[in-house]
Amino acid sequence: MKSTPDDIRVHSLAQLAQGQDWRLQLVHDRPYHLLVWITRGQGRVLLDGMRRGTGAHNALFVPAGTVFALDLGRQSIGQAVVLPVASPLRVPEIPRHLRIRDAQTQSELTNLIEAAGREEQGKRPLRGDALEAHAALMSVWLRRQIMQEEHVPEKRNAAGRLSKRFCDLLAQRFRSGDTMADYATSLDVTPTHLTRAVKAATGKTASDLLTERVLHEARRLLMETKEPAQQIAAFLGFGSAAYFTRFIQHHTGMPPSKLRGR
Fold it and tell me: Which CATH architecture has domain 9-151?
């Protein structure tokens, strides 16, 4: 039930959210790589099992299938570049959050994204080739920054390591209907320990993250597909359509049928 883009695309953050804050603020993962460049404003990002503050001139690289959430203030501005998994581009294999302090380096990425955006909007011959070339330069920019000593990731504590493992598992199994006890068993810890560790690393409990991931997918499927609610419920591991309806009503204040019309 997922649609995977075949082309390199450039969006503003507002376009990426499609006018609906939940699309970025709820924990989710995407079937493509995402390079986010924030040029104004502040907020928080949950990425790679950790929650951090983010602000102007922060670059986020989110590999396909990586759980993340982005909560930015209303005045925030930025761009996002969608990179298809099938692309031959060399991109990092792990999520990265880079704070770029050098003005020239900031301008380099801004100019690359703006040039790609102009190319995408144009109808010139070889548009696809040009977009791939721009994206390749963005990839070089990203990998150059990762090589800098200032961008070496901090060592994680035990809670951070467990939180990352949980988020990796969440992306794979959130449709299964598994309970927190099931996740804890797979991670060889107790549910209580899992809850505390994830809370320490992200500010939310493991149960909160599972709920958000399921809710995001439910809302997306209700709004982007014509699949019956009963089929979506089964796809997401709900025991019944009635339970699914109560879940949606509780978290959105509306039944599935009303969400479809929004």
Answer: Sandwich (2.60)
Q: What is the pTM of this model?
A: 0.94
Query: Are the folds of 9-151 and 158-260 the same?
Result: no
pLDDT by position in tens, the chain (length 262)? 554 556 899 999 999 999 999 999 999 999 999 999 999 999 999 999 999 999 999 999 999 999 999 999 989 999 999 999 988 899 999 999 999 999 999 999 999 999 999 999 998 999 999 999 999 999 999 999 999 999 988 899 999 999 999 999 999 999 999 999 999 999 999 999 999 999 999 999 999 999 999 999 999 999 999 999 999 999 999 999 999 999 999 999 999 998 886 6
**SS3 of 244, please?**
helix
CA atoms 171, 176, 177, 178: torsion sign? negative
Q: Domain residues of the chain, as ranges?
A: 9-151, 158-260
From residue 23, alpha-carbon distances to 17, 93, 215, 245 in Å are 5, 24, 10, 20
What would the two tokens of residue 220 be? Answer: 């997306």
Return the CATH class of domain 158-260.
Answer: mainly alpha
